[in-house]
Task: structure prediction
Amino acid sequence: MTKLGGVTPILRIFDIAKAREFYVGFLGFRIDWEHRFDDDAPLYVGISRDACILHLSEHHGDGTPGSALRIETRDIVAFHQDLIGKRYRFARPGLEHTPWRTREVTVTDPFGNRLTFWENEAQPDTEAEPVS
Result:
């Protein structure tokens, strides 16, 4: 029987220092690996935080600037407070309660990609499903 696995988005970047400042310094991802075909070639980077894996690429044709991602998040309130506490110069995201019963924190990276971190709001008498 066919079974699909996880998805690894590729996000286009144009400035390595800005990408590190945003994804590592602000969002708390770690760099897992970096690859270049040679010293003058574009960089391709694998980053992760918990079960969330992203690829960042300087390669023309990898990803489209302005992409949007939704990332399921456990304890979104603590995540939001952590981001606000960093006082990142280019983003001070809010915590939104949506009509579809989620709480969301949306940030835009320096390259126009929009990342929405979300968590289901607990239903009365039930718990929200945990992130796997």
